[in-house]
From TrEMBL:
GO molecular function: dioxygenase activity; metal ion binding
Keyword Magnesium carried by entry: no
Function: Probable 2-oxoglutarate-dependent dioxygenase that may be involved in glucosinolates biosynthesis. May play a role in the production of aliphatic glucosinolates.
Pfam families: 2OG-FeII_Oxy, DIOX_N
Protein's UniProt name: Fe2OG dioxygenase domain-containing protein
Taxonomic superkingdom: Eukaryota
Source species taxonomy: Eukaryota, Viridiplantae, Streptophyta, Embryophyta, Tracheophyta
Length: 315
């Protein structure tokens, strides 16, 4: 359950048939997941619900998407940060991405597809929606594991999950030209509660900054998903969980595709009283407004995640 890969990152094996809520295997996995989130801000999920066939169809969908003309892709706009088209950046030339709002619903996928393909693209919608729903299930499981490991009632977790909204970020990294460096995506933490990142076409590149400061490369595999804590989860946990710092380095000589399912909270978040004690005194204001925090980040542009969290809601 809690074994490590060649990197120091903990692996939680969801393919274990004995891992059902209430079993010893489940309780052990909950402890491993929580400890990994506290130490490094993430864990690796071995999760076989997403088949190779589905992965292949999603890669094909992304190839279609990013092959569209730039004037089509830039039509995906949003008044919310990071939800529109992002690309063609002089300081980040290898990276291009698009956000699908509400991807767990077919309606959300169809709304996105109609922007890209006015006549619609049903195969794109079906692949992306099926994929997003399976990642959504993993998001829910990860949150339940954390709540259970902290001894919190499941009805509070259910409320937390029900208040979530999701963004699916489709990402393409092209190969570097001779005069370009290999930085695919700058070092950062996410503003989310949880982010699930999947390296789709078996090309490495994602790196996690460990607690000790070194970078650890994450192996790409169809059944390996990186479950990362974002800034909002760090606040919710009263700083026990660490927001995961990560980056992408493009050493491969082939276009790389990945997906990220990002979760956000629609309502104001209360830090659980159970997570505040003498050993862990209250670090943040007890009520956290996720949307307002994102607007604060957009205005202030504070790069260091601890600094921006403290500036927004630190005590």
């Amino acid at each position: 359950m809690g074994s490590q890969s060649q990197s120091p990152l903990h692996v939680v094996d969801f393919t274990n048939e004995n891992m059902k809520p209430g079993t010893d295997a489940w309780l052990s996995a909950c402890h491993v997941a929580r400890t990994a989130l506290e130490d490094h801000g993430c864990f690796i999920a071995r999760y076989d619900r997403v088949s190779k066939e589905l992965c292949d169809s999603v890669v094909s969908a992304l190839e279609q998407l990013f092959a569209l003309p730039l004037e089509t892709k830039v039509q995906k706009t949003s008044d919310k940060l990071f939800r529109g088209y992002l690309g063609q950046l002089s300081w980040l030339p290898l990276y291009e991405s698009l956000g699908v709002d509400n991807p767990l619903s077919m309606d959300g996928c169809q709304k996105f597809a109609h922007i890209m393909w006015p006549q619609g693209n049903q195969s794109f919608c079906e692949s992306v929606n099926e994929y997003a729903k399976l990642l959504g299930e993993l998001d829910h499981i990860a949150k339940r594991m954390v709540f259970e490991s902290y001894g919190l009632e499941m009805k509070r977790c259910d409320s937390f999950i029900e208040s979530s909204n999701y963004l699916l970020r489709c990402m393409q990294y092209r190969t570097a030209k001779k005069d370009e460096n290999d930085l695919g995506l700058w070092s950062h933490t996410d503003l989310t509660t949880i982010s699930i990142v999947h390296q789709l076409n078996n090309l490495n590149g994602l790196e996690i900054k460990m607690a000790e400061g070194e970078w650890s490369e994450v192996d790409a595999s169809p059944n390996l998903f990186v479950v990362m804590a974002g800034d909002a989860f760090q606040v919710w946990s009263n700083g026990r969980i660490r927001s995961c710092e990560h980056r992408v380095i493009m050493n491969e000589k082939k276009t790389r595709y990945s997906m990220g399912l990002f979760s956000f909270i629609d309502k104001k978040v209360h830090i659980p009283e159970e997570l505040v004690n003498e050993q862990h005194p209250l670090r943040y204001k007890p009520i956290f407004d996720h949307d307002d925090f994102i607007r604060f980040y957009d205005k202030m542009k504070i790069k260091d995640h601890n600094s921006r969290i403290d500036a927004y809601c630190g005590i």
